[in-house]
Design goal:
Number of strands of chain A: 0
Structural class of chain A: mainly alpha
Largest interface: A-B, 40 and 40 residues
Mean pLDDT of chain A: 95
Oligomer: homodimer
Helix content of chain A: over 70%
Shape of chain A: globular
CATH class of the largest domain in chain A: Mainly Alpha
CATH architecture of the largest domain in chain A: Orthogonal Bundle
Order of helices and strands of chain A: HHHHHHHHHH
Chain lengths: 198, 198
DNA sequence: GTTGTAAGTAAATAAACGTTTACTTATTTT
DNA sequence: AAAATAAGTAAACGTTTATTTACTTACAAC
């Protein structure tokens, strides 16, 4: 039996992410992808049932999982609240800054019905995608460090700000002056923490 | 000369927003839209050059402009910082809560290359889309009420949080317990303000 | 009331889409 | 080295897409 060419499999995935980042998810067609990855359309369908299956697996395996790992790197639930948030904050920024395709597809997942569904399902199946952060927040509420808001509210107060700053970081990389510097980022983080802490 | 049927024009726009909210922008085709609005495809092309032209005008005229007006209702640059932010915050929430299609299309504009471009251009042509808020922030920096961050950074610290809360508000309307209440919203706003103010 | 004309329709167009068919290739097993 | 078989290809499939063509309708102007 002829063995699978893993390079081709990888090419399909990386080229797909590249097209999404450069031309948008709305402009990714299976034929375009096959051509760009130098394979026959049929080759994609050996591994993936259909386009939906491909996109969902691409999103979860190539983006969400590495993203979660990067966000939680060197983070511990036992950390001091401010330190913990700062760690997550800078981890997230570092990862997204160096993975524009990942950032692009994450942005799409906020509106695309398909990717949104995939995200919700992943969140349910894996228990919680950001379970350690959930427990971190819960512990700090119990300890009285922070107010008793629902976890989803805390999520809303931390991540969207940061994602918007990443978006601005990319916008400004094509302009004379970058305003999203590491200093600004840390000050923003401190601002958010100051608001949240009792 | 036969006069234009304004009802049909309006039907096209409202049906389009409805499809985007319910089935997603990725599932809006000109033929589906024409059928749902009970007109011939050709009728859409009397007023709009092509699909892109239609979507951009829909976004700007039916969504962004009413959105800006609603956000700035009863807001004044001379307001106290906390009062001003609270006013904008609650205006935005009220508007989006009652205009799910508007919220849906605004979410799409964060990722869709087409709508994103439209938003940027509108922002440039109209001077600044949220010019009064820009001046409000600038005045408060000058007065020393808040830190000297770039306007885009302040924008990132206020609006994305709120949009995420609106997203969660809609998520929770289909569940037993709504967590995004007016009380929570006001407390979140206070939290954000507390962080930002010196 | 006839006429001019833009509004509007139904059906058709070509291009692009996701996916499949019919076939060839490369490798392991015998 | 021949057989077996999944990997892979090129070309084609039937649909759906955005847009247009050829035609009809409804009203203002005369």
């Amino acid at each position: 039996m002829r063995p699978k060419n893993l390079e081709k499999e990888q090419a399909i995935r990386t080229v797909a992410l590249d097209i999404i980042a450069k031309e948008g998810l709305e402009n990714l067609s299976m034929q375009k992808l096959a051509k760009a990855a130098n394979v026959s359309p049929r080759t994609i369908y050996i591994k993936y049932e259909n386009k939906e299956d491909f996109l969902v697996k691409l999103f979860i395996n190539e983006v969400l999982e590495p993203y979660e790992q990067a966000v939680l790197k060197d983070f511990s639930e036992q950390m001091d609240f401010a330190d913990g948030v700062k760690k997550i904050w800078m981890n997230t920024f570092q990862y997204l800054k160096n993975n524009r395709p990942a950032f692009a597809i994450i942005q799409y997942s906020k509106s695309s019905l398909l990717l949104n569904k995939a995200y919700q399902q992943q969140n349910i199946q894996q228990g919680q995608f950001f379970a350690p952060i959930h427990r971190f927040i819960a512990a700090n509420i119990k300890a009285g460090t922070i107010k008793n808001f629902h976890f989803d509210v805390y999520r809303a107060m931390i991540f969207p700000v940061l994602l918007e700053l990443v978006s601005e970081y990319f916008d400004y990389t094509e302009r004379p002056k970058q305003i999203i510097t590491e200093k600004v980022l840390l000050e923003c983080c401190a601002t958010v923490i100051k608001g949240i802490m009792k």
